[in-house]
Amino acid sequence: MNTISSLLKIQYPIIQAGMVWCSGWRLASAVSNAGGLGLIGAGSMSPEILREHIIKCKAATPHSFGVNIPLIYSHALEQIHVAIEQNVKVVFTSAGNPAIFTSRLKDAGITVVHVVANSKFAKKAEASGVDAVVAEGFEAGGHNGREETTTMCLIPLIKEQISVPVIAAGGISTGRTMLAAMALGAEGVQIGSAFAVAKESSAHANFKQKVIEAGEGDTRLCLKSLTPVPLLKNSFSSEIEQAELRGADKEILRGILGKGRAKLGIFEGDLAAGELEIGQVSGILKEVRPAAEILKGIVLEFERAKSRICEFDW
Question: What is the reported pTM?
Answer without folding.
Answer: 0.93
